[in-house]
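Tutorial handout. Part one gives the primary structure; part two gives the three-dimensional structure as tokens.
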Amino acid sequence: MNATTMDPPVRYQVTGMDCPSCATKIEGAARSVPGIEEVRVSIASQEMTLWLREKTAPLPELEQAITGLGYRLTRLGEEEGDDKIPDLSHVTPAYRRALSIIVLLNVGYGLIEIVGGFVAGSQSLKADALDFLGDGIISFLGLIAIGWGHKARAQAALLQGLFLGALGLGVIAATAYCVFVLNQPQAALMGVFGAIALAVNIAAAIVLIPHRKGDANMRAVWLFSRNDAIGNAAVVVAAGLVWWTHSSWPDLVVAGAIAALFLQSAWSIITDARADLRQVTRAA
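Part two.
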């Protein structure tokens, strides 16, 4: 059955999604609940749309399954059209301050690390800096877009996805160039910047934890931070391998892997934003 022909869909605002893998996880949990015909979760608009087989589908069971993963759901009524302002009950001055700190941490260290990448001649540092800048931009959008309508959030997310994609392609291109012009990076500087990056990610998680309700949400924060920490640890490991092997290949491999994952996230944001804009257009 085509989801677009089913009427009416059920919509939720989702709080706590930090990356495209969160959307995939939520979709999987929703599809496991009997009575759900189709589900679409948009990281761009932070919304979940459900199409039901029957109006009596067990929504409380679905809500419990998703909140158990560490996310907060707010049911959007039919009177709340596709471009209405979302529920802002969870937004407090302290929450806004936390987001502002996250933006400063990520963007500030991202700029420092990208300079360090050029000084150390390390592509993996540049790719990791890109991850920091991307996180900072996503958090900045979350800060300024609080209270925006569906269409405005989707348009902003589309521009953000295109910008992040362009940055990712730039790192991929620079890494490909270095494959043919191999210059061994400075392992010591790589290790230092990678270790500092790990500390910055832990600090960001500590700032966010008070604004996530319940143990499940705290686990979600740490899971997101863990994913970033894996990239930081990979840079440190690459630094050790560069020092040990006297070769730039470990640095290039890690840079390519981080940039590829970054491009995947950017593509997910672009895809979701375009789908959201089509939905708004159909509803107009």
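Part three, for discussion. Residues 208 and 246 are 40 Å apart (CA to CA). Strands lie at 10-15, 36-42, 47-52, 72-76.
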